[in-house]
Amino acid sequence: MEAVFFDIDGTLLTEMPLIELFLPQVYELISRRTGLSKDAARERFLAEIFSRRDTYDWHDWNFFFKLFDLDMDYAELMKRYPHKLRVYPDTVPTLEWLKGEGYRLGVITSGPAYQGLKLELVGLGDYFDVIVTREDVKAIKPEPKIFLHALEGLGVRPGEALMVGDSLSQDVYGAKNVGMTAVWINRDGEPGYHMADYEIRTLHELRKILG
Q1: What is the pLDDT of residues 57-78, one digit of tens each?
Q2: What does the pLDDT look like over 19-47, one tens digit per residue?
Q3: Comparing C-alpha atoms, which of 139, 125, 200 is closest to residue 164?
Q4: Separation CA 199–CA 204 (nearest Å)
Q5: Could you tell me if 6 and 12 are in contact, meaning their C-beta atoms sit under 8 angstroms apart?
Q6: Among 35, 100, 204, 210, which lies 20 to 30 A Cα-Cα from 52?
Q7: Would you say the pTM of this structure is higher than 0.85?
């Protein structure tokens, strides 16, 4: 194995503290603008999100801010509250180990360009030799295009690369579909479907797989 690719959200870090901070503001703004109650505003906003799940638009908070004509920008929210982006405790030790072992590292994300900023804000950007977002190829996982672009960026063949992610439908299926080894990081112990080549609960377990 020559290279290891990672998903970002739910794999290397969680943005949930930031989401929990700004969503009440979103509901308040929609309520004021429409005259709906905050509960009704919440239902309308979340309905739009869930109706687009796993589509190209679903991966971008700014799409939904614009949809409701809200004067908000996700990159600005991240820069204002970087402490609300929480890196998992197993992330840095694992990346340090992988670098020390000589693996080339990359990121494959269905999110927009601000995903690169996210990695920089939490101090992870320098670990990666390539960061591929949906905007680099106008495609999202599990489309082969985004995986193949990332592999090309590191100059490795699919059989020489491992993909680590928390989504069976996007990370695992997409990686296996192009011939990569797929590792499902199942932090919450959710029921699986025996789709991944390996299932792990923490990133530390990559040492067993690659060792």
Answers
A1: 999 999 999 999 999 999 999 9
A2: 999 999 999 999 999 999 999 999 999 99
A3: 200
A4: 12
A5: yes
A6: 35
A7: yes
